[in-house]
Amino acid sequence: MRTTCTIIFLCLSLYAPAQTDSTTSQQRNWDIVPMISGSPEFGLLLGVNPIFTFKTNPADTVLRTSFFGPQLFGTFKKQFGIQIPGNLFFQQNRYALDFMINGANSRWRYYGIGNEIDLEEYDSYRFRGLTVDLVLLRRLFSSFYAGAGYRYNYLDVFSPTAGGLLETEQPAGHHGYTASGPVMVLRWESRDNVMNAYRGSFINIRGELHRTATGSTHHFEVLTLDFRHYIPLSQKPYHVLAFQVLHQATFGSVPFTELGMIGGSMINRGYFSGAYRDRHSLALQIEYRQMLGKKIGGVLFLSGGNLMSGYNELDPGETRFAAGIGLRFALLPQNRVNLRFDYAVGRNSRGQYFGINEAF
Question: Is 64 exposed, middle or buried (0-12, 13-18, 19+ CB in 10 A)?
Answer without folding.
Answer: buried
